[in-house]
């Protein structure tokens, strides 16, 4: 076994030069041959899916024999060495990507730096590795490849989801995310937010109050008024349009809530902001 040096440095991943968003870099197909790589390190993620044959991945944790239907992940800054079986060389597809979000998503699967291999399941992942051209200059192709990458990872999340991935704070973040995406709906109810998290109502209420210092309904109101302030400052909209845009059909009620939170009516707020610019 090759002596590999450094275990993956999670902190270096979090503070690397990567973009925050999940970002496609390149992809490809490797037919059966004697290609091998390493030992060495990369500063990107590289996900491989084995179509046929066999091979080996070596890390500091040991040697991982691999066969058709299995997947393995190369982590940034982890020293690795991989090579085909001498008698039955593997054929595989691969995709390289980066971004802080990549680490967050992959942490929700069974993949770990100490065990970067996933067993085969009754699904052929090969079609999802078809990214077509490796676009670097044409913006629409890069966006399309990023979308395909997200789709691919979604299947790994479906079939290899880590048990109990949600911690208490994650339920709160999920509830907040739903509010951020749906605050403009006048029909949104607290029960809708509870349904999204799929946890018991009173339990979520306690978690939310502990994490944010306010109730779910109060957070929804605060967020709506925050967005209203942004619209009043940056958009040439009437008070009625702003109210409707943040989930209030009744302009008078919106003005009442706005003043209660900001100490100003929407009109006064616009005037104050106009005088400051």
Automatic annotation (TrEMBL):
| CDD domains given in the database record | cupin_MmsR-like_N
What name does UniProt use for this protein? AraC family transcriptional regulator
Identify the taxonomic lineage of the organism of origin. Bacteria, Bacillati, Bacillota, Bacilli, Bacillales
Keywords from the named record:
DNA-binding, Transcription, Transcription regulation
Annotated SUPFAM superfamilies: Homeodomain-like, Regulatory protein AraC
Species of the source: Lederbergia graminis
Write down the InterPro entries for this protein, in alphabetical order. AraC-bd, Homeodomain-like_sf, HTH-like, HTH_AraC, HTH_AraC-typ_CS
One family from Pfam that matches here is: HTH_18
**Domain HTH araC/xylS-type residue range list:** 173-272
| Origin superkingdom | Bacteria
Is Transcription regulation there in the keyword field? yes
